[in-house]
Every structure is written in C-alpha cells, then in structure tokens.
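Table S2 (continued). Query chain:
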Amino acid sequence: RRRDALNICLRQEDEENQALIPLLLGSLVKCDEIATKHLVHTQGRKDGKRIKMAIVDWGNLDMGVLKPEWVPSSFGCCPFFVAQSLEAPLCLNYVNSLNISKNKLTELPIEIFHLKNLTNLNASHNQLTSLPE
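Corresponding output:
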C-alpha cells in the first residue's frame, strides 16, 4: 500500500503530493540485521547502544527522478531512524544497502555517494546516462 501511495504521489505534480514523497520513501527503510550484528562501534550515541544499519528499498517505484533533497529528508522522518533517535545528518551514516533498481532514473543524486557505509547499491534497470563526478 505504501508503494502504491508513493507511485501516485510521484505521478502528481502538486505541492501536497510532492510533500508526502519523503515520508513515504522513509517508510521503505528497514533494518539490516546482518550488518547490524557486525557493527561494533556506537558512533553518534551518548547512551552507548548499538545503532542499527538500514536497508533502503526504493526499487520498482517507477521514479523518473530522485530529487537530491529527498535522500536526507526521507531518512530524517523515517520511523526506523526516529526510533533510534537519529537525526537526518547522522542517518546518512547508517545506510548499508540501497535498492533503486527498476525505476526510470536518468541520473543519480550525488547525495547517494555521501552514504559513507553504503556497501550495496543496486541501480540496475534504469535509464542512467551518467554518474555524478
């Protein structure tokens, strides 16, 4: 249902639907249990608790564009990161896997390459013409 709602919003040009996109993208972030088990540091946490790594599945959404501002804003309102008391800038450090395959993207925002712990990027089956420098 979230994917259906997101696809509707992606097709609409009005401001109200566009404002919902980061919220809906954020709802597609899940815990990467395997990567979390291997995470030994507690960077960013004052209470010493282990931060969970994330899998982001934005594949097969029929996205023609992934706006640069959607990356940090979707993580900032994501229930997965909010539950860990992580704010948007820190969230970027805990994305392990990003699936943006089977969309209609012609370019990737540079923000994707700022995900410092990203080990798996699937951007297959898009219409990419170049990569950011």
